[in-house]
């Protein structure tokens, strides 16, 4: 299930939320503003979660909640990343802020936030671009200074999330039927691209390899062993297409026997 909210407020909290009374002031302010609210916290549970669900179902205020990424100090750092990205202030008792005194000025905003079971995507956060660049540079300095491969990997992930972009593809057409068809084609292309990124496999890759043969067609080695290696690489690049056309006689798919299409559900 995917929930998508346009122009929401974002409330960032560095603790678990279980008491609804703490949330009431900011919920009332958000309801008056008429915008959705995304809560990012260590967890939302008990009475607070139940009340938010009821309010959401009754349409009093649109609310979605997700767990803050990471653990311990890394969670605090990533919450601060999100705060800088969206123009929010992290509500933390360590800096003297509590939920009951939270106002709209403490909330961040974005053009769109999409939430699924595994991922949360923030599009066009309202943070100051200069602040975001400074944060990225700060993390890159930490990458250079750390001696831990694990810490370096996590820091690089944070840089990617801050410095990376989210593309919005707009599909237009003369009729609704045509628009749905175009949208389906775009989704197919996105799924194929995602599969290539995650699994290293993309339909048509055999054709790309065949074209790559031209790059080494006239290449000669300095000795017999190098030449044999070049020829081996050339034959390997041709192998997918060679198999496609010449195994039909053995009862497997060939040019005259179209392949059966399999559709897989790709993880987002």
Automatic annotation (TrEMBL):
Pfam families: Cpn60_TCP1 (PF00118). The keyword Oxidoreductase does not apply. Keywords: ATP-binding, Chaperone, Cytoplasm, Isomerase, Nucleotide-binding. One of its GO terms (biological process) is protein refolding. GO terms for molecular function: ATP binding; ATP-dependent protein folding chaperone; isomerase activity. Belongs to the chaperonin (HSP60) family. Together with its co-chaperonin GroES, plays an essential role in assisting protein folding. The GroEL-GroES system forms a nano-cage that allows encapsulation of the non-native substrate proteins and provides a physical environment optimized to promote and accelerate protein folding. Forms a cylinder of 14 subunits composed of two heptameric rings stacked back-to-back. Interacts with the co-chaperonin GroES. This is 60 kDa chaperonin. It comes from Simiduia agarivorans (strain DSM 21679 / JCM 13881 / BCRC 17597 / SA1). The lineage of its organism: Bacteria, Pseudomonadati, Pseudomonadota, Gammaproteobacteria, Cellvibrionales.
């Amino acid at each position: 299930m995917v929930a998508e909210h346009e122009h929401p407020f974002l409330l960032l909290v560095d603790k678990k939320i279980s008491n609804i009374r703490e949330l009431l002031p900011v919920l009332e302010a958000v309801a008056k503003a008429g915008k959705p609210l995304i809560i990012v916290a260590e967890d939302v549970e008990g009475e607070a979660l139940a009340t938010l669900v009821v309010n959401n179902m009754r349409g009093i205020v649109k609310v979605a909640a997700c767990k803050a990424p990471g653990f311990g100090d890394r969670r605090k750092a990533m919450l601060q990343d999100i705060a800088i990205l969206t123009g929010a202030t992290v509500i933390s008792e360590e800096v003297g802020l509590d939920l009951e005194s939270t106002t709209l000025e403490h909330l961040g905003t974005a053009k769109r936030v999409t939430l699924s079971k595994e991922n949360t995507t923030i599009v066009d956060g309202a943070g100051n671009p200069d602040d975001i660049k400074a944060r990225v540079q700060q993390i890159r300095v930490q990458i250079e200074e750390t001696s831990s491969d694990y810490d370096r990997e996590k820091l690089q992930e944070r840089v990617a999330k801050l410095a990376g972009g989210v593309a919005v593809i707009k599909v237009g057409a003369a009729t609704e039927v045509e628009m749905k068809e175009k949208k389906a084609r775009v989704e197919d292309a996105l799924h194929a691209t995602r599969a290539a990124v995650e699994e290293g496999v993309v339909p048509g890759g055999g054709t790309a390899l065949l074209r790559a043969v031209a790059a080494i067609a006239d290449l000669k080695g300095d000795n017999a062993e190098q030449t044999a290696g070049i020829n081996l690489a050339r034959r390997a690049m041709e192998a997918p297409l060679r198999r496609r056309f010449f195994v039909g006689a053995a009862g497997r798919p060939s040019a005259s026997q179209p392949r059966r299409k399999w559709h897989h559900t790709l993880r987002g």
